[in-house]
Amino acid sequence: MKNALTSCGLLHRGMKPINWKVSGTDGDARAGTLTTRRSVIETPVFMPVGTQGSVKGVRFEWLENEIDAQIILGNTYHLFLRPGVETIRKLGGLHKFTSWNRSILTDSGGFQVFSLTDLRKLSEEGVEFRSHIDGAKCFLSPEISMEVQADLGAEIVMAFDECPPGDAGHEATRKSLELTARWAERSRKHFDRLADGLRPASLQSETVGLTGKQALFGIIQGAGHFDLRVESLERTVEIGFDGYAIGGLSVGEEKEVMYRVLEHTAPQMPTNAPRYLMGVGTPEDLLEAVSRGVDMFDCVLPTRNGRTGGVFTSRGKLNIRNAQFAEDENPLDPECACSVCQRYSRAYLRHLFQAGEMTAATLISHHNLAFYLDLMRKARGAIKESRFAKFKREFLEKIGDN
Amino acid sequence: MKNALTSCGLLHRGMKPINWKVSGTDGDARAGTLTTRRSVIETPVFMPVGTQGSVKGVRFEWLENEIDAQIILGNTYHLFLRPGVETIRKLGGLHKFTSWNRSILTDSGGFQVFSLTDLRKLSEEGVEFRSHIDGAKCFLSPEISMEVQADLGAEIVMAFDECPPGDAGHEATRKSLELTARWAERSRKHFDRLADGLRPASLQSETVGLTGKQALFGIIQGAGHFDLRVESLERTVEIGFDGYAIGGLSVGEEKEVMYRVLEHTAPQMPTNAPRYLMGVGTPEDLLEAVSRGVDMFDCVLPTRNGRTGGVFTSRGKLNIRNAQFAEDENPLDPECACSVCQRYSRAYLRHLFQAGEMTAATLISHHNLAFYLDLMRKARGAIKESRFAKFKREFLEKIGDN
Q: Which residues of B121-149 are buried (b: 16+ CB within 10 A; e: fewer)?
């Protein structure tokens, strides 16, 4: 027999898809707890990027048992193109398909359409583009993005937005922002229709989105223009979302611009919802953003750098390809407790990298993720003990020493 | 104070570097136990190939904690060229350098010189060749190979041999075999000098070869010529080694030739020493060789196929790239207990492979190694219970069904 609660869409409106609790603040910095149906996420949190249903080079077992990631990212654009949402739906959604049972956040696909594809045709309705894989003509809109993300079944779904270039002028940014605002409304509306079970019958029967159990985050745009950021923030909050993201940063603008935008935007964001800075950044960026009130992050840096030999350490970055490490018996980061640093030497990892062994990328990516998640745990501890400013200052001094 | 036993080379001659015990036979097939200073190896055994100090795509942690490999292979040729024996010696030998603490067998470098390099100049003294990495002129001889392998510090060291092509004629094979026999004597002699502490002083002070604790295996050549195989066997046994290997098979000759050579050679090999078939082969090859009395194997197939999507299963081989697996929720091998088969579906692994995710290679290589090692454990069980012929017949029938 069908459970009355789960078959009645309207009741779900009363269910909270996520639970957010701020458990400590230190200046603008916050320590919080984000609970989804699948995991308890302590913030500030870094979410490893699992673009195509896999965190590049690092098996889920390590993410679960050692690195202890409670949430990872999935990219709607990539999964939409391959293996295709039809396949993922048939196989029971992204969690079942990939076997990752903790939380997932999916982006809307918008950012990748604007950064990875050519021949885009932008209209009020949505965006037509050609797949970067095979050139096939595709179309994404707020409604389609919501449907795809419902089928993927992540705990957190992102509104479909347009992301202008970092150096976009005021007029172009305003135009883009207004489109993003209209798309945000359409995203919200369609997300709610889906949550209310008003999906097209063809989709409904097979849905794996667990109606009512997904959260929807809105995205604040406005490039480097403070007034537009504020306007975007207000319009997004007016629509109302379960969480708020800052998009369109770290897209080519100066670091100082990013930090100032954060300073002007983050503290004004609702306190009763998580704040997510999309696609950012270096360890420094993370601490700067945390100090300005950001709770959630994702970025490809730890795994992308891992694949090219770039190592994040408590003494700054190092490149394992450097000849100086050829006979260096130290671990990547002597202060790191991860299984890579506990066992393998720089000399060995450099050798693997030089020899083209894929295990080099695997081990360095693993360490980098462990370093990022550990940094966020330490930041959290410092916030809760009201010593975040000192923690941040000492951390930045130390990585600058290198 | 130096221990009298370890400072006196002569005493070491009385110490057995390895211990070999046959604990069961079934026809020509044998179940044995090979004990080194680092691990207890139950045979028949498959040794994963760790060419450059890493088993491609599979972290040591999985090899230790799940796949349970007690011995892996290292390639002298590759390590000699990169990172170089000087570096490995400085860093304390191959075990310390790589952090692999169980047994290692190193080959002599001969086979790779003959298969990977151009511009070889073969002389009685040894072989001059150009590095496949940077074209640098290099030289290997029985003496140099023994010195390099002493510095690498593996538990089992291979004599330096010449490997003729699989289709070499009788005369060419005899000539090659005689060179191999003279090189075997020189290998033995120089190995013993090193073991007796008579190494050049420049090497001795830094040695990590743990004098007296390495075993030396001789190699039987002779291509597809039975009379020459027997002659090579007799000459090798006359010199006297801790174990005996069959080289020069699976180098392009017909399967039937290989099986017949094994049938004529393996059962005649000394019973009181392990028998090692070098560089072979498929699961079928392994069982055919076990049935003819072989104890040890190595081969790149499980990891090389893993990287190209080739999967070994109890129902035969499958290629994960095949479109038929796009929505297949079954594990790679429903009869396999490995962590990959317990968790991941064919559909997911195919997706990872198609999407170019390196984790595809990692997971399939892991499964393939688990499959190989498990096959050897099952063969051992069958031998000990005198049902090996039945086990082999049923296994071959089943993989043929596919």
A: eeeeebbbbeeeeeeeebebbbbbbbbbb
